[in-house]
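Researcher: Excuse me, tokens okay?
***
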Amino acid sequence: MKTDIQIAQETKMLHIREVVAPFGIKEDDLDLYGKYKAKVSDELWNKVKDNPDGKLVLVTAINPTPAGEGKTTISVGLSQALNKAGKKTIVALREPSLGPCFGIKGGAAGGGYSQVVPMEDLNLHFTGDFHAITSANNLLAAMIDNHIQQGNELGIDTRQITWKRCIDMNDRVLRNVVVGLGAKADGVVREDHFVITVASEIMAILCLCNDINDLKERLGNIIVAYNYDGKPVTAKDLQAVGAMTALLKDAIKPNIVQTLEHTPAFVHGGPFANIAHGCNSVRATKTALKLSDIVVTEAGFGADLGAEKFFDIKCRASNIKPDAVVLVATVRALKYNGGVAKQDLSVENIEALKKGIVNLEKHIENIQKYGVPIIVTLNSFVTDTEQEYQYIKTFCEEKGCEFALAKVWEQGGDGGIELAEKVIHILETKESNYQPLYPLTMPLKEKIQTIASEIYGAKKVAFSASASKSLQQLEQLGFSNLPVCMAKNQYSLSDDQTKLGRPTDFTLHVREVYVNAGAGFVVVLTGNVMTMPGLPKQPAAINIDVDDNGTIVGLF
């Protein structure tokens, strides 16, 4: 079997102007990055902003396992299948981070015959958006320390600097560092921290802003520290907004590439869903909706993280409404949730399936709380059996969900026709009654408790002393009406990644709370989740190389 990168490299790509032409996008609407990549201009939005919106389909999944689920693969394959079915469709995805690309997860361009290309560019530097975000983040950090060094007119308390530096790499030794060592001219000695770029507030701001003016306002509202009187100090106070905007002026323009079957793909923004809000940019989604009949988008990790944040953060911020949800699972992942070891997942095991399907059941129930119609799809593996398929199909239909088998990894769009037909049927016959999980007027602590109990299934929430103090402070500062962005491990509905299936009677532990005032949400860190990951013992980086012909190998 060919690897993903082999399939991608053997595909004949079209010039990007040919890919977008059927959607009414002209070459003058594009800022070209070579033949196969482009950014869409601000002028395009002005041309299409009064068009009616197409339908929006969210692709989400059960909790990820080592067995794999293939959410991006399904998103890409579904978009290809919908185009084959005669529906003008665009797929809108996030940009991959170098962290997992060189770490354990690999790239994020789909797989098999349902990929976005150019795959190597997409997974590596792409159009430089992440570099721009990293630079803007670290410019602000440099201006904070410079301000303190030059006299500290704002009275910044160096023990209460909340802004962290960032880098788009898994690098655990940067989680906690000391800066300013050396001579007096080298700065003030203090403890500092790094987050991975996808967890930077600037990433969230880029993904949630509507235009350059909204970007500036949000950047200005970033709280970087507190002064000796306990009052917030912002990026606007440091006069950093103009320069940060200059670094981001091109990065906020959505990128457009293509799938293996030449479906247009908006790929823009890349926040992780376990430590950030996990959705692609509002600008990309809104533009795609104005250009197509159907937009397929995804939210990161399981529905407890990505989908919850899509519904409760992105939809609110952008005033968009999903029309349907595709919930992705695999037979192998469900058996893994039922206690089967990874090496035994290829063997038919209905009893394990019955035990593990409770994870899927919980995600179905969660999405139904938002009032959006659901189609459950199984990403097919060759080791699956007909009896396993039938059990899951019957289970889903009894839960009030449509069901479809997807073979898009193996067959591309042709393997997604059954799923596409179910999606079209849902869009044409069922109304979405989307509503958020909680009102913004609810106190912050109650919002956290609501997500913990309703979405995760927790019995109670335990707040650390510092988290409780922070919540009280944020209420006093006027941030009580913001949504909350939960940072939680992705492998379990609980904050303990070893608890698979559908854990019950557990306590969710909240250890830290802080505000991303520019992004417009309150971040809640639970369990031992990290905002700066580390590399595994055998990182994917050791298998990546460039051959004598200049072709990248080992990327997946």
About this structure: The first strand starts at residue 30 and ends at 32. Residues 84 and 500 are 38 Å apart (CA to CA). The mean pLDDT is 95.
